[in-house]
């Protein structure tokens, strides 16, 4: 793969759009010929980030928008999931395994931990009342990525 390829996708903050986000990112990344494991890792990380934006950022308000920015450069894909929702009050606490601000929804509190473990790089930034941005990077170790 030569050069740079980018996409931006915005959709309503509806839980049924989480599957759409997974499929859209998987289709975009498919040009790097990822392994099934790499593809599943990416889809799971995107799913967690989008679900967090919908449930925590927007309180499941479907009138709001979630945005995904994806960029392929060389053998790597970077993905950002953004919302302009409520933001995270205590980012350090939110990143702790098993912590959830929505125990009544039976959330596992493992979203950030999963994203961090499935991706090669993971960063989250948030501003109270100003939304959250989750940035992830994954290097695709496929033959196609290595030879182009």
TrEMBL record:
EC number, UniProt record: 2.7.11.1
Superkingdom per UniProt: Bacteria
Entry-linked SUPFAM superfamilies: ATPase domain of HSP90 chaperone/DNA topoisomerase II/histidine kinase (SSF55874)
Claim: Kinase is one of the keywords in the record: yes
Histidine kinase/HSP90-like ATPase domain span: 37-142
Reaction(s) the record says it catalyses: L-threonyl-[protein] + ATP = O-phospho-L-threonyl-[protein] + ADP + H(+); L-seryl-[protein] + ATP = O-phospho-L-seryl-[protein] + ADP + H(+)
InterPro entries: Anti-sigma-factor_SerPK, Anti-sigma_F, HATPase_C_sf, HATPase_dom
Keyword match Nucleotide-binding: yes
Any one GO molecular-function label of the UniProt entry: protein serine/threonine kinase activity
Keyword terms, alphabetized: ATP-binding, Kinase, Nucleotide-binding, Serine/threonine-protein kinase, Sporulation, Transferase
One matching Pfam family: HATPase_c_2
A GO biological process held by the record: asexual sporulation
Function of the molecule: Binds to sigma F and blocks its ability to form an RNA polymerase holoenzyme (E-sigma F). Phosphorylates SpoIIAA on a serine residue. This phosphorylation may enable SpoIIAA to act as an anti-anti-sigma factor that counteracts SpoIIAB and thus releases sigma F from inhibition.
Family: Belongs to the anti-sigma-factor family.
Protein name: Anti-sigma F factor
Originating organism: Paenibacillus arenilitoris
